[in-house]
Amino acid sequence: MTTAPLEDQRRLLEVQALDTRAAQIAHRQRTLPAIARITELDARLADVDASRVASRTALSDLKREVTKADADVEQVRVRAARDQARLDAGTGTAKDLQAITSELTALGRRQAELEEVELEVMERLEAHESVLAELNSAAAVIEAQKAEAVAERDADLAVLTAELVALEVDRAAKAEGLDAGLVKLYDRLRAQSGGLGAAALRGRRCEGCRLELNPMDVEAIRKAAPEQVVLCEECGRILVRLPEPVRG
């Protein structure tokens, strides 16, 4: 059976109030709206980045296609220019000149086909460049929004951290000199009971579990020695007896 001066037990409620406040602040630190916003923005940015990678890959492929199409067109142009020069010079037999003329006609058709392919590839390239530009703009907007959210989070965390530091100082003062056995029991019960290890007994109700105890248990608690540490039969927390209200 744990015993501790009744005054220490009552002071323990002050320590509990500070611990409860600290737990609330810690919860706020974990659940700041800015944190959820940062998570959302990170997910959006990851999606945009994935699209940007795909777009850059497509652009790289299309640029190679454009280079190849340019080379194919240039090769036909060079061949046509050489044939045209031979035709203009009038050298060779009539049969040779006729063959050159036929080849120039074929080269003209081939050049037109290749230029059409080149144009189609360039149009696709421009479309992908436009998409990539839009993705880059979207990423810049998201990054700016994230920077704002991070600044908001850091500012809020700084305020809450300062509150916690002040609470820790206050708690140390409140807990100083408390019965060691009482504190050990309180810390164990607090760890087991979601942060609440001690609660006041008000009338028949335990302020920890908010349940009313049966009259016989309450009577036994009231009659227990003041230094006896009693636990709630319902939730197992330390029950701290408060002074009886003065009846007029």
Describe this entry's structure for a reader.
With 248 residues, the chain is mainly α. The protein folds into 2 domains: 6-21 and 179-241, no CATH class; 32-175, Helix Hairpins (Orthogonal Bundle). The chain is built from 5 helices and 4 strands. The protein has helices spanning 6-30, 33-89, 94-175, 180-192, 215-223; strands at residues 198-202, 205-206, 230-231, 238-241. The protein has a 4-stranded mixed β-sheet with strand order 2-1-4-3. A hairpin with a 6-residue loop joins strand 3 and strand 4 (238-241). The longest helix has 82 residues, at 94-175. The two termini are 36 Å apart. The model has no long low-confidence stretch (mean pLDDT 90).
Core attributes:
248 residues; mainly alpha; Helix Hairpins; four-stranded mixed β-sheet; 5 helices; Oxidative_Scav/Glycosyltrans; Zf-RING_7; coiled coil; CT398_CC_hairpin
Mean pLDDT: 90
Question: Strand pairing plus helix content: what structural class?
Answer: mainly alpha
Sheet of most strands: 4 strands, mixed
Radius of gyration: 42 Å
* E-strand count: 4
Helix content: over 70%
State the strand order across the main sheet.
Answer: 2-1-4-3
Secondary structure tally, helices: 5
Strand percent estimate: 5-15%
What is the global morphology? rod-shaped
> What would you call the quaternary organization?
single chain
Whole-number count of domains: 2
**Low confidence ranges:** none
Q: For the record, what CATH class of the largest domain applies?
A: Mainly Alpha
Distance between the termini: 36 Å
Q: Give me the CATH fold name of the largest domain.
A: Helix Hairpins
Order of helices and strands: HHHHEEHEE
